[in-house]
Design a protein that fits this description.
This protein is about 75% helix and about 0% strand. By secondary structure, the protein is mainly alpha-helical.
Length: about 180
């Protein structure tokens, strides 16, 4: 039974890669899954519920897979890779009436992964909670802000490459903050 629910979610993602969110129907989903409408409604109240559940499930998988990254660049680039895998689906969600829950989920995912990274890194144990929170907010702002920009620009540039360049550019200033050495 759980397998059927996963098949419905996978089918939703497939359809979202092919067409806009508002064009996806329950009929499209059940036809592709080869299940009846009652099966769909057994698991999901409607398509928005399926969308929310699918996004939350995807984000949990990303958090589990990348929750133990070892550097800021890895933290951001892994999230970028996962987002780029669903590029068309994300663009369709971004341009849909379901934009807010989608963006809220991205914000939560970014916060969870970045917070996990900062909490595990020994170098951040030397700084106050306030400074640690500032580091988390900065990286989250970079992730969420650049995701918004990427989506607004039609996902027209390589998000992973952008994060790599960003981390190279700001590696020095971040090291100065953590070490307390203003001379670097």
């Amino acid at each position: 039974m759980i397998q059927t629910k996963e098949i419905i979610k996978d089918t939703f993602w497939e359809l979202l890669e092919e067409k806009p969110y508002n064009k996806i129907t329950v009929k499209d989903i059940v036809t592709r899954c080869r299940v009846n409408r009652n099966t769909f409604y057994y698991y999901f109240q409607d398509i928005p519920t399926l969308m929310t559940d699918s996004i939350e499930d995807w984000m949990e998988k990303v958090i589990q897979q990348y929750g133990s990254v070892t550097s800021p660049v890895n933290c951001l680039t892994y999230m970028a890779e996962e987002c780029m895998k669903r590029k068309k689906a994300f663009l369709h969600l971004f341009h849909s009436v379901q934009k807010d829950p989608f963006l809220s989920g991205l914000n939560k995912m970014g916060d969870d992964i970045i917070r996990n990274y900062v909490d595990k890194m020994g170098v951040y144990k030397q700084v106050s909670k306030k400074e640690k929170d500032i580091v988390i907010r900065c990286y989250k702002c970079v992730f969420v802000g650049s995701m918004l920009n990427w989506l607004e620009e039609g996902a027209s540039y390589d998000l992973k490459e952008f994060y790599e360049e960003f981390c190279k550019m700001f590696a020095g200033p971040g090291e100065r903050v953590v070490s307390g050495d203003e001379s670097k």
